[in-house]
Hints:
By secondary structure, the chain is mainly alpha-helical. About 45% of the residues lie in helices and about 5% in strands. The chain has helices at about 1-10, 40-45, 50-60, 65-70, 100-105, 115-130, 160-175, 190-200, 215-220, 225-230, 235-250, 255-275, and strands at about 75, 80-85, 110, 205, 210. It has a three-stranded antiparallel beta sheet with strand order 1-2-3, with no helix packed on it. β1 and β2 (about 80-85) form a beta hairpin. α8 (about 190-200) packs across α10 (about 225-230). The longest helix is centred in the C-terminal third of the chain and has 20 residues, at about 255-275. The protein is globular and about 70 Å long.
Amino acid sequence: MLASVVRLNPDGVEKPGNHLVFSKKDQIEDKEFSAEYIMPLLDAATSWRDKAFWALVAGAGLRMSEAAQITWDAVLTEQRKVFIYDPEGHRYADQLPEEYAPRFKGRKYSGTYIIPQLRDVFFEALEQYVRREYRPTGNHNLVFQDIRTGQNGRPFMLVSDKNMGSAFKRACRRAGVPRLPNGEEYTLHSLRHFYGVFMLNYIPVEGGYGLKLTEVQRLMGHEKASTTAKYAREDKLILQSKLELFDQFVLNGGLKETDLRTMLAKRHQEAAKRLLSGITGETGH
Length: 285
């Protein structure tokens, strides 16, 4: 009888299955790089250049192209700041602090916010990169170079995405980074996803944790908040905590609102510890 109704498709009755067909693009995957493997990944880099580059991409949520095109005048080592060329004003280049505006002579640059732990790694690796691998050249003023033999310090941005990605995946394997739920390996772009999730969920703010989506949008340089939402989503740990609390609410006959805050705070602290766990210690390259 049910089959007959479905075949007839009477008014007001939709055929079952219409909402259960997903394309590969529609499937939700955990695309962000796992926080607990950030430091092992950086320690597995085989060059100081890669360690600095990956720490900057993850720490500031940059696009690979943005990180590869950073010039030396946009890196302030004493202030430990990095600026990004922002001609479209997506990161509010028009609000550049006055103290930095003269440095760029009217060009539209915006400051980045680098997660402090990764900021330390970036500047330490950058110093070693300059000492051991960087080759001064009059051809360009870009920070990152192709350091392979015979390349004479050509811009790193000219290295193919395939080669950049291969080095990253090899480091992931050395660091024991697990694959994505769909069986694929993480890509360099997953570091940018990590930044979005981390900033939306784990940055301590007044009254809790996590920036607003529009604030993360500004930091990541997206034109639309809907784009940011693809990166910055609520961490599954937070969702799991809410569901666990509801279970306790039903079973125990009601809990206080402070219980949720306590549980969420505990989850936030655990995630922060994972990020901090590999900070100390220097590895050879």
